[in-house]
Amino acid sequence: QDYTWENHGFSLVNRLYSDIGHLLDEKFRMVYNLTYNTMATHEDVDTTTLRRALFNYVHCMYGIRYDDYDYGEVNQLLERSLKVYIKTVTCYPERTTKRMYDSYWRQFKHSEKVHVNLLLMEARMQAELLYALRAITRHLT
Predict the structure, then answer these.
(1) CA-CA distance, 31 to 116, in Å (whole number)?
(2) 80, part of any domain
């Protein structure tokens, strides 16, 4: 809550390595905003809430929580099998199996499930960057 990518990480990484913050930010935003506006067989669906829940759940697993986010959304939107998959992919990727991949969202398209994986990896990368950049900030002050 007191050290975010938008408010702290972006500017520090740009200060340390010119323009890399813009490239990383563009990468995070591109994956976060990627959508076909579909969910399984439903079309014209706003998936923003789901994408935010996935991203914030990964950050929460890494100990990063935001005061302005209602974590009840995570429990409403992410079923248990998906949470198990998320934890495995983000914390123990070498343990991820096809069976685990197949066990959640059975009716969804593979492209939607691949997007979930992209979101998880970008959320993990951002969380890891936040920890590293926060340590650098503490060292510099």
Answers:
(1) 9
(2) yes
Cβ–Cβ < 8 Å for 93, 114: no
- The answer to whether 86 touches 54, Cβ cutoff 8 Å, is yes
Asked if residue 104 belongs to a domain, the reply is yes
pLDDT digits (tens, 9 = 90+) for 89-133: 999 999 999 999 999 999 999 999 999 999 999 999 999 999 999
Instruction: Report if residue 1 sits inside a domain.
Output: no
* pLDDT band at residue 3 under the 50/70/90 scheme: confident
Structure tokens at 86: 């998320």
Structure tokens at 99: 């069976």
Q: How far apart are CA 92 and CA 85, in angstroms?
A: 10
Domains identified in the chain, total number? 1
Residue 102 lies in a domain: yes
Q: What is the DSSP string of 45-110?
A: ---HHHHHHHHHHHHHHTT---TTS-THHHHHHS-HHHHHHHHHHHH-GGG--HHHHHHS-TTS-H
For residue 22, give its domain range: 6-138
